[in-house]
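Budget justification note: compute hours in this period were largely spent on complex prediction jobs such as the one shown. Inputs:
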Amino acid sequence: MKTSGTLYEEVVNITYEYLGPAADRFIVRQIRSHLGKDPYQLRKQDLSSLIDWIRLAMMLLIEDKKLINKYVSDLHDLAKTSPQKAARA
Amino acid sequence: MTGCRCHILCSCIKWALIKRTVILTNGGTELKVRSKLFYSYLLFVIIYAGFVLLPAPSSATLSQYHVSAFWLRAIYVTLILILAGIWFAGFYSYAKLREYARLINDNKDGKQVSLIVRGIFLLVIWLPVSSVSSVILNHIAMRHLGWLPAVTIFDNYVSLLFPLAGFIYISLGARGLSNLVRAHSAYVARNVMAIFLIYVGLIYYHLVATTPFRTTTYHMSIWIILLTLVAPYIYMWFVGLQASYEIYHYRRKVAGIVYKNSWNLLTLGLGWLIIMSIGLQYLTTLTPHLNHLSIYWMLAIIYSLLLLLAAGFVLIALGARKLKKIEEV
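Corresponding output:
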């Protein structure tokens, strides 16, 4: 998963490390069902809420809290480090 | 006696109808058996049980195994129950895998998983279809002895064609998955498989060619057996082993720690099922050599093999459930 551009694609990019081919479907589902948005409309201010939902979803999938924390931390880093991408999105 | 048989059949139907309404709960996940699939399963069990239990056992069978008609029927009942359990495990694993495939149907991996599901369906359906067709045709052949060769030949081809088609579909799906991660089987692995299959094939050929019961087991000339049974079986085992290896390879190479781990059970289950199917078919050819064993030893061997096969279905169901969960949360 090399493509990146919009915030949504960045989130999928990070998720790919954890959910592989299921990453895109997983993120689209989280954004659509919990934020009620089209994935490409994801904004920086939505990230915090999205991360909370992702954390909850991951807790249903695995018990490894370290891994969940690492994933969530990667997403938080994205929120901090890519303001220009977020703005572009 | 007829009343007793009817009672057993009625009990079976009642049990099945109760079972139909039961929702199986496992780990908090409710799993409801799909109706069409469940009714097909039920039909297979009832037909099989009817054709095995209702006709009076032949005196030849009773004297061969030194048991009374009652004991033989009691043994048949245990066999039916075990078979019913195994078929259920098969149908259940197929249902779970199909649900997962439907969730990801429009994706690249979904198309490949759908091919694997089709293959699993053929493997799952092969067990009841071969057992039911065999028991019905043998029942007819007992009344028209002239039909026995045709029935045997038909049985042999049913036992071959379903798993052969199943393995081909699984192999196509496995190859597709491994193409997605651009991973191809290693040179060493291909060679090990080739060497293994050469030996397996040669031993199989030897067993078929030298069996003293060849005429009664196959009712065909040796060349026809070699060209239309032995060669396709060896090809099927090759395809199955290759598929098993490709799925394992996909699981190793695919990205995503959680996704990869969710494939563990499914990979193990598919590999196990393929290897056990190979083992089961291989041992089927040895059946004439095992005729000297007592019925209890024969049953112990059959039960163990069938239960081992069922373990593969259970692993597939558990693996599919794990993967399905990723697509549902």
